[in-house]
């Protein structure tokens, strides 16, 4: 009825500073920012260590991080502009990557995560059309994170990943088109290519009490798509003022190139690929009617999400099964999924007074 498995305090302190400067001269505007921070971790364990044990309170571990970012925009004329941004920063690893297995001995392999990002873009502005397009590329190195997984016995385990590199790159486009005052068409397209960049020699596995139960490796992640998020998305929206007091709208959203999340401890063979979630699209509609209520401004509104009650998978975790020929495969039959929400609607009345 008291403390079970573990009982500790995690002490986290942050100190930091920030500096930013901006410059504007005619069609050119630019900025630069600098920041520095120190993250301090300390762990006090009342469960594993006796009060007389000097290890009950760990040493303080410090991670110094910094950030620098700069960008510029140039207005070619009233309609056209180009812009660019470049940034680099280092951030402290998560607390659970510094103190492993519920022990107060700091992990010497825990290092700052390092992120380098830059983008280049173009914009267009007019009374009828406004649009932006940009290219981006982000390198994220030395990531540290924990993945939850379940063993064949149904028990929950955790895999601790250190030194993982990822590359996120792609192109994005958005626009607003107003052919007439009462009609507005909005849209966007995002095409991403997000991949893990390296294999791991060893991944340590812990139980719920942070006791090490073993390790696996090597883990073949290089070239695999980052899961748990669609890498291709698109949207199109139409809003129409039917008359001054009635507005209606419809929105179309598309999701594709969606790879299931995966258990890294199962990737012990080369060439394995997690199951890819089927592409799907959703349509939402909305309407708002403004009127007078007892001399007060009022509006009646309604929204219908997933108008056609589309059945789709919003989240998935890949599982690999053994085939008779000895190979392993991840597919729809052996993956665990969450289905998305079906048709829903809301309506309401708002009175301003």
Percent helix:
under 10%
Q: What is the string of SSEs from the N terminus onward?
A: EEEEHEEEEEEEEEEEEEEEEE
The radius of gyration is 26 Å
Q: List segments where confidence is low: pLDDT < 50 over at least 5 consecutive residues.
A: none
Shape: globular
- Report the structural category: mainly beta
- The number of E-state strands comes to 21
Q: How does the major sheet shape up?
A: 16 strands, antiparallel
Termini Cα gap = 54 Å
> Can you give the mean pLDDT?
92
Query: Could you tell me the strand content as a percent range?
Result: over 45%
Q: Given the structure, what is the number of helices?
A: 1
Question: What do you see in this structure?
Answer:
There is one protein chain. The protein is mainly β. Helix content is 1%, strand content 64%. A hairpin with a 2-residue loop joins strand 7 (156-180) and strand 8 (183-196). The termini are far apart. The model has no long low-confidence stretch (mean pLDDT 92).
What's the structural blueprint in terms of helices and strands?
Layout lengths: L7 E18 L2 E18 L15 E15 L4 E12 L3 H4 L14 E13 L3 E22 L5 E25 L2 E14 L6 E4 L5 E5 L13 E14 L2 E14 L1 E2 L13 E2 L2 E14 L2 E10 L7 E6 L2 E2 L5 E2 L6 E4 L4 E9 L1
Task: Using brief descriptors, characterize the structure shown.
16-stranded antiparallel sheet, 3-stranded mixed sheet, 1% helix, 1 helix, mainly beta
């Amino acid at each position: 009825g008291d403390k079970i498995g573990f009982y500790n305090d995690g002490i986290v302190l942050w100190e930091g500073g920030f500096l930013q400067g901006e410059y504007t001269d005619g069609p050119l505007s630019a900025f630069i920012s600098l920041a520095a921070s120190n993250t301090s971790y300390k762990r006090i364990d009342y469960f594993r260590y006796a009060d007389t044990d000097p290890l009950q309170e760990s040493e303080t571990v410090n991670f110094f991080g910094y950030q620098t970012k700069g960008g510029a925009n140039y207005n070619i004329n009233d309609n056209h502009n180009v812009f660019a941004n470049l940034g680099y920063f280092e951030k402290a690893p998560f607390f659970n990557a510094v103190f492993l297995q519920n022990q107060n001995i700091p992990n010497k392999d825990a290092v700052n995560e390092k992120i380098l990002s830059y983008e280049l873009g173009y914009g267009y502005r007019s009374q009828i059309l406004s649009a932006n397009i940009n290219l981006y590329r982000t390198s994220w190195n030395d990531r540290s994170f924990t993945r939850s997984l379940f063993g064949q016995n149904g028990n929950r385990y955790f895999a601790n990943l250190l030194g993982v590199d990822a590359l996120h790159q792609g192109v994005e486009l958005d626009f607003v088109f107003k052919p007439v005052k009462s009609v507005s068409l909005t849209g966007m397209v995002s095409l991403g290519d997000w991949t893990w960049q390296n294999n791991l020699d060893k991944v340590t596995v812990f139980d719920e009490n942070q006791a090490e139960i073993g390790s696996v490796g090597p883990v073949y992640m290089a070239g695999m798509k980052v899961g748990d998020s669609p890498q291709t998305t698109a949207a199109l929206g139409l809003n129409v003022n039917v008359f001054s007091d009635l507005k209606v709208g419809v929105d179309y959203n598309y999701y594709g190139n969606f790879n299931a999340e995966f258990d890294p401890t199962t990737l012990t063979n080369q060439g394995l690929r997690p199951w890819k979630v089927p592409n799907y699209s959703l349509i939402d509609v909305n309407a708002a009617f403004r009127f007078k209520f007892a001399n007060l401004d009022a509006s009646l509104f309604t929204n219908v999400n997933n108008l056609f009650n589309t059945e789709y998978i919003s989240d998935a975790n890949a599982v690999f099964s053994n085939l008779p020929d000895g190979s392993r495969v991840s597919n729809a039959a052996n993956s665990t999924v969450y289905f998305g929400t079906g048709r829903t609607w809301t309506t309401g009345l708002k009175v301003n007074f």
